[in-house]
Amino acid sequence: MPAADSSDALLMEPVTRLHTAALQALASDPAVSATSHLPSPYPPGHAEAWIHAATEARAKGEAFHFAVMLPQEGFVGCCSLMAVSPRERSAQVSYWIGRPYWGRGLATRATRWVLGFAFEALKLERVRTCVLDGNIASLRVLEKLGFLPLLRAPNRNPKFPLDASLVFFERLAVPLSSRRPDAQDS
Ligand SMILES: CC(C)(COP(=O)(O)OP(=O)(O)OC[C@H]1O[C@@H](n2cnc3c(N)ncnc32)[C@H](O)[C@@H]1OP(=O)(O)O)[C@@H](O)C(=O)NCCC(=O)NCCS
After folding, report:
1. How far apart, in whole angstroms, are the C-alpha atoms of residue 169 and residue 82?
2. Ligand 1 pocket: which of 97, 101, 132 to mutate (most atoms <8 Å of CB)?
3. How far apart are CA 117 and CA 106, in angstroms?
4. Residue 43 domain-assigned (yes or no)
5. Is 76 touching ligand 1 by the criterion CB < 6 Å?
6. Nearest CA to ligand 1 atom 17
7. Which end of the chain has fewer CB within 10 Å, C or N?
8. Gap from CA of 92 to ligand 1 centroid (Å)
9. What is the pLDDT, as a whole number, of residue 8?
């Protein structure tokens, strides 16, 4: 680390206190925090405490939070592997990109890199996530990366609208059809 994303000049590196100011500024945009796992509104000074916790979680192997970096712009967002379970060989992924950088394929590329880290470096078998129904950009990111929907459930997170739904997704390291030679594509 840092490691280059093979398709372009995207760099992924563990979040450190060097990212504090840019992370605080970009995460404080309600358009970023409202639909993600970030607290909304994003509290002043929260980035410093969060990065400290992220560093401890990485040391324990519980979570791996990566800064999404571009050579010119520097820090542009985060992509995280959380709830890492070596026993179940599973984890959860989440991502956000600062609003000035939306629509450039960055979330897709960053999350693809993190999936590679999960499946190749950590040898996990499945990565899950959940998305607020109606978060079209995020749903599209998951579609591009081969996530499959598992279920839809009513939202219970008070930060989201009470009448909202969440859609849960899963991405397997190896597609089921490749594990079962007798399986037929539908
Ligand atoms: C969701 C988010 C990470 C996407 O980041 P991004 O870097 O812009 O994503 P990408 O460019 O890789 O892909 C976005 C896709 O959604 C599409 N998209 C975005 N808005 C859309 C809209 N209103 N209608 C249709 N498609 C849309 C883009 O065209 C693109 O698809 P394409 O490559 O086929 O053209 C970013 O919007 C974000 O940080 N949102 C706030 C936090 C959040 O919601 N995080 C996800 C929590 S589950």
Report:
1. 15
2. 97
3. 16
4. yes
5. no
6. 137
7. C
8. 19
9. 57
